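queue> holo job accepted (phenylalanine)
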Amino acid sequence: MLEKLMEMKESAKEKISEAKTIQELNETKSLYLGKKSPLQALFSQMKDLTNEGKKELGQKINEFKTMVEEEVNKRLEKIKEEEVERRLKMEAIDVTLPGKEIPVGALHVLTKTIEEMEDIFLSMGYSVVEGPEVEEDKFNFEMMNLPKNHPARDMQDSFYINPNILLRTHTSPVQARTMLKAKGEPIKVICPGKVYRRDDDDATHSHQFMQLEGLVVDKDISMADLKGTLSLLMQKMLGKNTKIRFRPSYFPFTEPSVEVDVTCFKCGGKGCPLCKGSGWIEVLGGGKVHPNVLKMAGYDPNVYTGFAFGIGIERIAMLKHGIDDIRNFYISDPRFLKQF
Ligand code: PHE
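queue> job finished
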């Protein structure tokens, strides 16, 4: 009987270690300890033994039971561990898979150009002001020394809402608005914004574009101040070797008036296809504020002088980045926009 028990010990150990699931393990356990197990048969044979024999067998049976229980518990732990490992493997995240790209937007190249110019002017003590895009004839023309029927209106006669209201054709009306507000005090402002003109759209013209207006009004302001200011601006925007030149011109609201050219950023002034061989590229108009404009806005032209200028923002961005068609700015093609 004892031998049988020893045999059972071996086979029980083996069976228990082979159990793969908790259910299998429970089945094995009852196979050896349950009601129908060979152990019960041993019990029933006990009555035939001597007292000594009973004691010995009882002890062995208890040892056997403890052994089975211990082995079962050990195996149970093992099975649980294996289960955890299996789940970990199954649910593992492959961190080497490429992630999903979240597209982020960025500022438009024109907005960036404006911000760059604003920074430069802010560092020179200017303030940034704004004005309406739907403007009165009074500000857009009359207060800029362009009375009704003035021939110079013809260049800009554009998008009218009614005979007195139109989409502003330049940012210059903000000059008049700013002067009226300042009530005779000195002025140093810039105003970036959209303007609208009856222009045929082509590679360098658009019916809607952007300007940056500048206005300084104070005592003893001269053309030299204008030149120094614009030189510095162009050097910072287009490179420190950039030079500017003034060419005589005409605007009703400035006297004298100039067109301002910069040395071609591509050839440095030698002449190339971009600057049409001249070495210079026109970027803005300006001049000393016309006495009539000062007078109409409440400034005494005998005491105050000033300069004003209007820069084409697209022009500057095109020069800076080598963009050859103004329409690129407005068609919102990401292949273009992404480059800046
Ligand atoms: N307003 C002019 C234009 O649009 C530019 C300019 C502004 C010229 C200020 C002189 C002074 O062409």
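queue> The radius of gyration is 46 Å.
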